[in-house]
Amino acid sequence: MKRPILIHPDPRLKKVCAPVADITDDLRRLADDMLETMYDAPGIGLAAPQIGVLDRVIVMDCVKDETLPPRPVVMVNPQVVAGSDLLNTYEEGCLSIPEQYADVTRPAEVEVRWMDLDGREQTETFDGLWATCVQHEIDHLDGKLFIDYLKPMKRQMITRKMQKLKREKARA
Q: Is the pLDDT of residue 93 over 90?
């Protein structure tokens, strides 16, 4: 089921999410809903707080090549356990901050540990767009948005645009 995506500013987007204790059928349904919502948006990543669920769950799929099969990844309680000294700058966007983009610099490669939907611990090293995406989504679980990396003036400008967008949507 596709779910509505929260738009910044929303207090739920600034909250630190609780760790997930158990893998349940409800959690699996949440993951399915998140993937459906992400693909429909369309986006390459989505964190549970973006749909108003304050649990440590993210989904992502950074396969851009239409000739390759999709690679949906669901991470429960993900954490970056190592990051490279080498940095990468990507122009980031966010489904909760539509049509706003800015360069953000992050480690170029990260090792991430998480639990899958079968309750098994997984570890993988990500680089390129995957590394940027997983760090961006984990930030959401800690109440941090990509605009929090920007200078205050740019951040305020984007926040004002989002407030205006929300007012226009409320009138429509």
A: yes
